[in-house]
Structures are given as C-alpha cells and as structure tokens.
TrEMBL record:
Gene3D superfamilies: Cobalt-precorrin-4 Transmethylase, Domain 1, Methyltransferase, Cobalt-precorrin-4 Transmethylase, Domain 2. Its EC number is 2.1.1.107. It comes from Pseudomonas sediminis. PANTHER family: S-ADENOSYL-L-METHIONINE-DEPENDENT UROPORPHYRINOGEN III METHYLTRANSFERASE, CHLOROPLASTIC, SIROHEME SYNTHASE-RELATED. This is uroporphyrinogen-III C-methyltransferase. The keyword Chloroplast does not apply. The gene is cobA.
C-alpha cells in the first residue's frame, strides 16, 4: 500500500488565502488533524472528513507531539487519506518537517503544501512591504520562543539591516526590546504589532522599539500576533485588500 500523508498549510486565517492545492487535499481527506490556529472556516472544504483537534488546547496534555505522530501513522496505515493541517505554512515554526521526518522513518510518504505564513499576511494587510528598495534588503523570520529558553543573537539581528518579523513574541516584548537596543538598534525603530492577521478581528498597533511594550499593554495586544520591526513599518500605504476582505 502506498499511503501518503498531506502536510498542509491552512494560511493565516482568511479562508480565501488557502492555496488551490490545499483545497484539493482537503477535498480528498478522510481524516483531518488540525492545530489551534487553524480557522475552522477552512473545514468547509472537507465536509465528510473526520476532524481531529490536536492543538495544545485540544486536550493532548502529555507528550502531544508523540501522540500526534502515532495518530497520523495509525490512520495512514489504515489506508486513510490523512491531512495534517497547520496554521500558516507548515514548515515555518510549525514542526512540519519534524512530523514529515518521523513519518518518513516509518515508511509513510509525505507531501507538503505551502500556506501563507502569518508574517507575510499580517504585514501585507497593514500595508507594510517587508522588503523595500533602498530601505530593507531582506527579511528575517524569527521566533522569540525557544524550546530550551536560550537567547537569540539579538546583536546580529539588530545589525542585519533586514526587516525582522517576530513570531510568538507577545510575552517576550521586554526581552526583544532590550536585546535589540543592546545590539545597537535605534530606540526610534518603527514597530508594527499585528494581531489576528487576515481575520475580520485583525488589529494593528504601531509603535517604536523603545515604547513597544508599553504600547502593547495599553492596546491589550494578545496572541496570536506578529511583530514587524524595521524601517518598513513606518510605511502606511494600503497595498493590500483588507477593504475587500472586510467589506
Ligand atoms: N506556521 C505558522 C506559525 C505558527 S507559530 C505560520 O506560518 O504562520 C504561532 C505564531 O504564529 C503565533 O504565536 C503568532 O506569532 C503567529 N501567528 C499565527 N497566526 C497568526 C495570525 N493570524 N495573526 C498574527 N500572528 C499569527
């Protein structure tokens, strides 16, 4: 039996940001295993599939990752069409490659389908170009949350000259600010904090490096949110389609 598991990105929230390939995989799915950050609205594309919530808030307290691995393997070995659906892109801070490697070691092929990652969607929906000629020559996606609580090389990041897009940073704003300031970044560096990117409840808080934590508190910024740190966060031109989205 040549069973395959689909590792699919559900995008940042807006169901219209699903790829056609993701929709095709969902259409064929018999089992769909979803994370917390997946917008349930995307499940309209798999009305007859069995939906299994395996997010951290989904009831898997002990060794959740091992449990997810075993569940995928069990259904795949039963010959079921399994879709592992993850928020954003499955391989951007999504453990997608870990799951694919584990399945591969157990003889199961995996096909990965990209999703639009939250950092891209959030910036675009706020009119922020992550790269900009003469302003930002690149973009760095970084997580503020590390498994072993080790510190990032903030100095290298501060001096990279790239736009920084920080995931999982809401609880770490003070560390991020202190690290970047110590690394030589200007306290005036523009920052955009974008909550629930691409969803109707999207909110955006503009600030600067030195004041971002206070501003986030006053704004009651909540997860999921991404931070865009860099000169590009000064831009305010609406280059995207939020008006169409939320009309
Ligand atoms: N694989 C996902 C990221 C998962 S890590 C992706 O590619 O987008 C989880 C973090 O992603 C959250 O803590 C938050 O920083 C970010 N995130 C996910 N969805 C988001 C959204 N709709 N708006 C803002 N940030 C989001």
């Amino acid at each position: 039996m040549n069973t395959k598991v689909w590792l699919v990105g559900a995008g940042p929230g807006d169901p219209e940001l699903l790829t056609l390939k993701a929709v095709k995989a969902l259409n064929q799915a018999e089992i769909v295993m979803i994370d917390d950050l997946v917008n349930p609205a995307v499940l309209e594309h798999c009305p007859s599939a069995r939906i299994i919530s395996v997010g951290k808030r989904g009831g898997c307290r002990s060794t959740p990752q091992a449990f997810i691995h075993r569940l995928m393997l069990r259904y795949a070995r039963q010959g079921k069409c399994v879709v592992r659906l993850k928020g954003g892109d499955p391989c951007i801070f999504g453990r997608g490659s870990e799951e694919a490697d584990w399945l591969g070691e157990h003889g199961i092929d995996v096909e990965t389908v990209n999703g639009i990652t939250a950092g891209l969607a959030g910036a675009t929906n706020c009119g922020i170009p992550l790269t900009l000629r003469g302003v930002a020559r690149g973009v760095t996606l970084v997580t503020a949350h590390t498994q072993d609580d080790s510190s990032l090389n903030w100095t290298a990041l501060a001096q990279s000259g790239t736009t920084l897009v920080v995931y999982m940073g809401v609880a770490k704003l003070a560390d991020i600010r202190d690290g970047l300031l110590a690394g030589g970044m200007s306290d005036e560096m523009p920052v955009a904090m974008i909550e629930n990117a691409s969803l109707p409840e999207q909110r955006e808080c503009r600030s600067h490096l030195a004041t971002m934590q206070d501003d986030a508190m006053a704004f009651a910024l909540k997860s999921p949110a991404i931070l865009v740190i860099g000169e590009v966060a000064r831009a305010s031109t609406q280059i995207s389609m939020p008006l169409l989205l939320h009309a």
